[in-house]
Design goal:
The protein is of the alpha+beta class. The chain has helices at 5-31, 36-80, 95-118, 128-137, 141-144, 157-164, 166-182, 210-219, 250-265, 277-287; strands spanning 147-154, 189-194, 197-203, 225-227, 230-232, 236-243, 272-274. The protein folds into 2 domains: 5-113, no CATH class; 128-287, Alpha-Beta Plaits (2-Layer Sandwich), CATH 3.30.70.
């Protein structure tokens, strides 16, 4: 059974008020002569006044404390919703101010750590964990908004690493990420999934289809990339899935875009492929055990 500390506090304030009233009556009786038939009423009145005063002080403190606790609970609710930018607005040199400072320091540290967790260390791009968190915080996103998922990687990237080294390969990834990120619209974001695999997430409209986005993404690779002072021509393969027509499950949409990219790699002269219903059969066949 959970304790009700407010009742304990109320009793403590009433008890303290009664003692103060009792002490006040004793002092009055000591300083002046009180008729014997009025002593009882003096103590009764003093204790009653002390209890009323204690109850009033309790209500004032209770309201103040409840307001403070309510604010802290709002901060906790925002943290539970993965909003780590929340801050306590109290300040001061008393215990509440010091507690607020400690909480804000902890929140700043938590926000920094969360930012590290959600972003790729090499390119600074959002990562797979960011995408999952974004999906959790916007639960109706894929059902309400037509969204394209463009899964792409760099063709023959392993050969680049083998020939020039991994530091050169890291520079390639950084340059690719920087060029595409600089051209993104406000509602679009680029995610580095792993290695040389990226995912572009963009909202669709009547004037912008998954095919249009794939062609725009391909255009970023027409010009060679400047890698440590030398020009490197890169190629990419792109797979596209679309929500909600291809599903509303995030993992499923990424898997379908990944499979579409696999098909794109096998097509000569075309480096992108839009996921289609017949592809779903091929995915299920590949998923079956031997």
């Amino acid at each position: 059974m959970r304790k009700n500390y407010s009742v304990y506090m109320f009793g403590a304030f009433l008890g303290t008020g009664s003692l103060i009233g009792l002490a006040f009556a004793s002092i009055v009786q000591f300083l002046i002569t009180v008729p014997e038939n009025e002593v009882f009423y003096l103590y009764l009145l003093a204790i009653g006044a002390g209890m009323v005063n204690g109850a009033a002080i309790f209500l004032i403190n209770y309201s103040f404390i409840r307001s403070i606790i309510g604010h802290f609970r709002e901060i906790l609710a925002r943290i539970q919703e993965e909003d780590y930018s929340a801050r306590v607005c109290f300040s001061g040199r008393d215990m509440i101010g010091l507690l607020a400072d400690d909480v804000n320091c902890a929140l700043e540290h938590l926000e920094e750590k969360n930012d590290e967790v959600l972003h790729d260390e090499l390119t600074g791009l959002p990562n797979r964990q960011f995408l999952k968190q974004y999906h959790r915080k916007n639960s109706g996103w894929l059902a309400q908004q037509k969204t394209a998922f463009l899964f792409f990687d760099l063709d023959k990237f392993k050969e680049i690493n083998d020939q020039y080294g991994h530091l050169y390969g890291d520079k390639v990834l950084m340059e690719v990420a920087g060029r595409i990120r600089a051209a993104l619209a406000k509602e679009e974001f680029l995610v580095r999934l792993s290695g040389d695999e990226f995912l572009l997430v963009a909202s669709l409209s009547e004037g912008c289809t998954g095919k249009d986005l794939a062609e725009q993404l391909m255009a970023f690779f027409f010009e060679p990339f400047n890698i440590n002072g030398s020009l490197q021509q890169l190629q990419t393969s792109i797979g596209v899935s679309t929500a909600p027509s291809d599903g509303e499950n995030l993992a499923e949409l990424i898997r379908k875009a990944d499979f579409a990219m696999y098909i794109a790699k096998k097509q000569e002269g075309i480096s992108y492929h839009l996921f289609q219903e017949q592809d779903a059969v091929r995915i299920s066949e590949m998923a079956e055990p031997c």
